[in-house]
Amino acid sequence: MSTDDITSEQAYVSALYDRLDGLRRRTTSRLRTVLRHSESLPRARFERDAASADCAATLARITAAENGLCFGRLDFDGGERRYVGRMGIFDEDADYEPLLIDWRTPAARPFYVATGAARLGVRRRRHITTRRREVTGLDDDVFELAVREPSATELVGEPALFATLNAARTGRMSDIVETIQAEQDRIIRSDHRGILVVQGGPGTGKTAVALHRAAYLLYTHRDRLARSGVLVVGPHPTFLRYIENVLPSLGETSVVSATVEALYPGARAQRPEEPALAELKGRAVLADVLAAAVRDRQRLPGGQTLEIHTEERLLLLERSTCVRARALARESGELHNQARTLFVRAVIEALARQVADGYAAETITAQVLEADPEALDLLAPAGFGGTSLLDDDDLAQLRRELRADPAVRAALDELWPVLSPEQLVAELYADPGTLASAAPELTAAERRLLHRPLAEDGTDPDDAWLRALRDATAGAAASPGPGDDGGVGTSEGSDQDGSADGDGDGDGDGDAARTGGGPRPAGGWTAADIPLLDEAAELLGEDDRAARAAALRDRLARVAYAQGVLDIISRDVEDDPEIMMATDLIDAARLADRHEDADLRTIAERALADRTWTFGHVVVDEAQELSEMAWRMVMRRCPTRSMTIVGDIAQTGDPAGTTSWERVLAPYTASGPRPRQESLTVNYRTPAEIMAVAADVLATLRPPQQPPRSVRALGLDPWRLRVTEDELGPVLARTVLAELERLSAGQLAVLVPAGRLAELTAAVRAAVPATETGGGARLSAPVVVLGIREAKGLEFDTVLVVDPDRVLAESPRGAHDLYVALSRATRSLGVLHTGEVPAMLDRLSPAGPPADVPPAAPRSTEGRASTSPTASRAAGT
Ligand SMILES: Nc1ncnc2c1ncn2[C@@H]1O[C@H](COP(=O)(O)OP(=O)(O)OP(=O)(O)O)[C@@H](O)[C@H]1O
């Protein structure tokens, strides 16, 4: 490329940066002006905050575009020229002529998909490489005018692509906006409607494509998606940290990313699950089991009558009354906790009638019996009409007394308890009788597997459901107002059944005390339990009446305040009919609404705090790991089914994970359009020599899968080293040091069977103290030691896989896990094994012990993250 070319491109790029600076200055100054206004009224505050959020989002986009602002140019047959970059820049003085087009616009598309076979009118595609604001290189694809056969293997912008692929890893995924390939571009820009499934082998760019698609959809449908948000579901927290820079670097900051478990704002997984149990808990049939468990908790008295001994009297609750009350509550279509109100109301009504009849019977006995000795027998079958002897106030008082009576409450709790999801699931596991009745579809052995006693302390400080219920009811009880008596939610007239405490007994405790806190199984919850808790929450229903009543009370107070304000400003002019008064323009209710405080939390904050939040689009990465129950949980978050699902069924490690996209998605697409399927076939990560080893493992899986085609070979043979069990720790430590020496920059991962994580981490740490490990590992560390599941979706320059035999034995999907482990490296791979090498790894070249590395001397790698890896490596040895 001539220096003239670089000079002229530099001039153009510099002019773009000048415009970017101008835009930044204008936005910053607008932000300052907006923030200077100290608004006292909530609505004005809201507008100010919305304007400042808008400025902040624009500034974030400008900042994100700074590096690599312009990276491409297209020259068309007719002489038209388009520059492509990270954001659109227009010439305001020339009718908004585009100077730089955003990569997501249709006009930019030929940059990614034009080939010699399908030129789309492009004569030349130029990749422009920049460092900071300086143009450092140009690469041109000049298309011949003659049409030739399309080639499936054709890469777009090879030099730029290989420069990225060969660069050392940093522990953070980067965007690929400058080098998106044609098969990836098609997926990124695919229609947002419906479910899109992208199946692809390791390193084919599924994660990269899914994230660029999220950015594309946010750009194309910003109005719709900005309100409801986009959710990215990833397999583990380390993965979410690994990808967290990608969308911000594309100028998108409003995406929520979470693991499946984090979508349930309550209990957290506290321990790993046994594979057999994880598989069982993942089955969709567990949804039926939970539904049956809920119905089982809606009970009837054992005999024909239930005796309730209150302090004053003995009440006899007829079984038939409970049958009717239960049918009424069930048929209402309300969820369990809300339907309890109807059940309680019907039972209390029957008990009130019984007490009133008692009064009537006494009256009759005293006044009538003498006149007609058979009066009791005559009246008893149809009742004494006792309620008609009491006026409405007396009856209301009687119902309140009955609801507050501890014996009556205990009986109601036995028959129809308020349940938290944690309580339902933990008590289901704990009680073999409930399990047997709720889970007839499971075998006795499976039910035994599910059985787990309750944790001894019985309460779970993390039971958010109960905490929220307690807070809400405490708030409701603490704020006296019209709602407390005869007002919203508490009167006999409106709610009849009582108050805002969610159980209808008017005691304000929300029954939290009676649920005994939040039970959990001994040992705590596991990741496989979380979808069950979410399902239980869905069946039980959120009890939001306390919060609703509190909100209504707030509003009444605001209306009263607004009325006071209107009275004051109208007072002096009240008698003059000529003068228009404030009350002619606005009433108190509307004035109050204008003063309502807006919810200023970000979409992410609101969405993650609200279990019932639904997103405009959901991306599921490593989707093969989701169980059927987890899918139910994710699907609830996306009723529109606008979803991008990316994964690889050959990499499924979770025993409850997916083996067929069709099968797992069938329940959600039965009545709608079928999911669209796309596949990615080119492996950008793993060099061909390593992929050949992984492909041998892949060949042992059923059903057989096609390995992806590696885009590059590096000429470095993957090796294996046999060591004795005793030597494993020290040899591993020396190998790590030797490999670090070889690796001038980048990252090294030691991938081990989950059961050996602690022991092998200790061995590596003896040589490299800064080694990071486990789910919370900091990926910028020079060395990380991870179990295979924790390495899902990640990549490293060098990978050492330890004890493949144990990886294979540790889980029914051991071979899938080994396949994942072998396909994480971007440069080199070594395997340390203690027994015979598994036959599927025969292709590995036998190696001698790590040479030239002194065995002891632990190496300091302090400060490596902030200095150049090469420098700190040198300093550390
Ligand atoms: N078009 C591209 N240009 C540059 N780099 C790319 C491109 N496509 C993919 N890559 C790189 O290839 C690597 C693998 O991509 P990614 O992690 O998205 O693959 P994956 O299919 O999700 O892999 P796995 O299934 O193993 O998790 C990443 O470093 C990614 O940045």
Please give a structural write-up:
- A 7-stranded parallel sheet has the order 19-20-18-21-22-17-23, sandwiched between helices. A 6-stranded mixed sheet has the order 3-4-2-1-5-6, covered by helices on one side.
- A hairpin with a 5-residue loop joins strand 3 (89-91) and strand 4.
- With 877 residues, the protein is α/β, with parallel strands linked by helices.
- The radius of gyration is 34 Å and the shape is globular.
- It has 4 domains: 3-156, no CATH class; 195-264 and 611-683, 3-Layer(aba) Sandwich (Rossmann fold), CATH 3.40.50.300; 280-460 and 492-507 and 522-536, no CATH class; 688-841, Rossmann fold.
- The chain is built from 34 helices and 23 strands.
| Helix content, binned percent | 40-55%
Q: How confident overall, as mean pLDDT?
A: 83
The coarse silhouette is: globular
Total domain count:
4
Radius of gyration, rounded? Answer: 34 Å
Structural class by secondary-structure content: alpha/beta
**Total helical segments:** 34
- Biggest sheet, in brief? 7 strands, parallel
The separation of the N and C termini measures 42 Å
The total strand number stands at 23
Query: Which residues form runs of ≥5 with pLDDT under 50?
Result: 460-517, 852-877
Percent in strands: 5-15%
Biased composition (Pro residues): 847-857
Pfam families: UvrD_C_2
InterPro entries: DNA_helicase_UvrD/REP, P-loop_NTPase, UvrD-like_ATP-bd, UvrD-like_helicase_C
Biased composition (Acidic residues): 494-510
